[in-house]
Design goal:
212 residues, alpha/beta, Rossmann fold, 2 domains, 5-stranded mixed β-sheet, elongated
Length: 212
């Protein structure tokens, strides 16, 4: 059987407390030796791990995985991919749908093994708990809104102007490290309407954030 073709993704940011590339490379190389991986390291200098924006090396790696030119995406720590466990659960869903594996060494997640898949399910479970906590916090925030604001948001969802409380919620979720897509999904699930009453989209979230 051919050795798995593994892309070892190394992300280096400008944070002084960030783990250096040597630590990441050593961890990935040691795991590749232990597991018999055919490892290709790809390094990217990117300040943020919140989204794919500004991370062309990772985007290219995902394209290779989707096209079947590689089998596994490996990182030494979860935060090399994302700061959010909820976002990471979507990475797991994508990898399963596109038939490639994902290995996150610090979490013990490796979807190419039985134990690793079990750990992935645990990760997804905790991600769902995170989404529920977000929903609860949103409900609490809405309960504190002025009645006029709540009425505008519940009036068939057709208000023309987005209440400032909803915009503040968008910024709060962004500060927690969620991607634009993750924020849009969370607000849609929680039933927070947009200014026109439609579904939340990443582009809508971006427009709100760029007003700051």
């Amino acid at each position: 059987m051919d050795a798995p073709r593994v892309i070892g993704y190394v992300r280096v940011s400008t944070s002084k407390q960030d783990i250096g590339p040597e630590v990441q490379i050593d961890a990935l190389t040691a795991e590749a030796t232990r597991r018999g991986w055919n490892l290709e390291l790809r390094r990217e200098d990117a300040a943020s791990g919140k989204s794919l924006k500004g991370r062309p090396i990772l985007a290219a790696a995902l394209a290779d995985l989707k096209a079947g030119r590689a089998d596994v995406l490996a990182v030494s720590k979860l935060d090399r991919l994302s700061r959010s466990v909820a976002d990471f659960s979507r990475w797991l869903e994508d990898s399963e749908a596109q038939r490639w594996g994902i290995a996150c060494l610090d979490l013990g997640v490796d979807t190419t093994t039985i134990t690793g898949r079990a750990m992935a399910q645990v990760t997804v479970t905790f991600a769902e708990m995170e989404r529920r906590r977000i929903s609860e916090r949103t409900k609490e925030a809405m309960a504190k809104m002025p009645k006029s604001s709540r009425d505008r948001m519940r009036d068939g969802g057709r208000q023309r102007v987005l209440p400032p409380e909803a915009a503040a919620r968008v910024r709060e979720l962004r500060a927690e490290g969620m991607t634009l897509a993750g924020i849009a999904e969370a607000l849609t699930v929680e039933g927070v309407p947009t200014a026109t009453g439609g579904k939340w989209w990443p582009s809508t979230v971006r427009q709100i954030l760029t007003r700051d």
